[in-house]
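Input record, target 12 of the design panel.
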């Protein structure tokens, strides 16, 4: 799973030796834990990824995608039938998918790409992918630092 911060960013933030690999496994574990916690706190996927979700239609005109900002939608199906892109509209920054969503249990499937690009050292594969806001990156760095400084060892 992608992370909100890179190992190098964490080492720089913690003022650790960038060349040393002694703490890398611990730091990578803490980065994954902090990323998961920040995403859970915000209630959505934040890192750029391809996602396939199943939703139960409620009969109203909105579906709330679990990851955003939405970069692109690959496909939408209702009861196994493909829905043409002209039949729905997405609010990219909120993840709301507007359309005619009939009531049913797990009857709607959405395949899409969403989230922020998190690696400032490497450009995103598309200009449509937004960079992660610095406040989210800093939140994750602070959490990794807290976890690192307060880790307990086996005694």
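The sequence produced for target 12 reads:
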């Amino acid at each position: 799973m992608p992370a909100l911060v890179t190992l190098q960013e964490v080492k720089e933030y913690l003022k650790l030796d960038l060349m040393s690999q002694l703490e890398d496994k611990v730091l990578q574990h803490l980065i994954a834990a902090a990323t998961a916690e920040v995403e859970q706190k915000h209630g959505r996927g934040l890192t750029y990824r391809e996602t396939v979700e199943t939703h139960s239609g409620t009969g109203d005109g909105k579906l709330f995608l679990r990851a955003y900002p939405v970069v692109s939608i690959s496909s939408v199906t209702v009861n196994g039938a493909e829905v043409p892109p002209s039949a729905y509209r997405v609010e990219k920054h909120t993840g709301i998918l507007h359309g005619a969503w009939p009531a049913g249990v797990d009857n709607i499937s959405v395949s899409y790409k969403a989230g922020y690009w998190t690696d400032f050292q490497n450009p995103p594969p598309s200009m449509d992918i937004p960079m992660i806001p610095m406040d989210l990156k800093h939140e994750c760095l602070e959490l990794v630092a807290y976890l690192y400084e307060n880790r307990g060892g086996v005694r």
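Residues 24-42 form the longest helix (19 residues).
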